[in-house]
Amino acid sequence: MAPVLKTNAEIDKLRRANAVVAEVLAACGEMVRPGLTTWDLEEKARRILEKRKAKSAFLHYQPAPDMTAYPAVLCVSVNEEVVHGIPNRDRVLQDGDIVSVDFGAFKDGYCGDAARTFAVGTVSETARRLMDATEQALAEGIAMAQPGNRLQDIGYAVQRRAESDGFSVVRQFVGHGIGRAMHEDPQVPNFGRPGRGMRLRVGLVIAIEPMVNEGDWEVEILDDGWTVVTIDGKLSAHFENSIAITPDGPIVLSRF
User: Fold this and answer.
1) Measuring CA to CA, which residue among 126, 125, 100, 129 is closest to residue 115?
2) What is the pTM of this model?
3) At the N or C end, where does the chain have fewer CB atoms within 10 A?
4) Is 162 part of any domain?
């Protein structure tokens, strides 16, 4: 299916939805500390959703009939958890952990989606390098989201940055188009070959979201049906922004 290009008016609505997302992620980042539970973050996100009169994009999300509906408004993934970690009252953050927080929200019929990875207390040099490399990979992927470029130019830029820093990019989960639905065409892989894939056009709005592992790029899903973890138990980091492609280049809609 061809991606649905957005008008300037629709991009403004997407910007408002992403403002709620950015507010939640900023609030979570300020809260993160040793001793906090992942459910504490969930409760904060729910309060902001109610205050902003927005709707969670994640709560009760069920991508397939045989899957359990997602039970929270946040995805909170700690250390070897890559994405889709379920907030839990018993999961206490420890000094040295890294925690990724992924959040999506609908406002006035349009969806925002973004993620950040935060350090809990004092983290290892490896953890800090991983987080920095993932955030930089996102920035370099966004920089390639120019009208006339190809879709895999984005993935190639992400992969090149992550691998040049000694890390690997997850292949089983990818970014996506976004608009009236959280997941629209096209899929946006974090790997690829330059000059391949659909041509990027003005009005395309996509979520670019590198998931970068300390070790092997392969992952597995836990018995809860949602939590994705690295296959070797090593660390993973996740950063995401929703961006609009304009005549002047990419605009980040979910910036803090």
Assistant:
1) 100
2) 0.97
3) N
4) yes
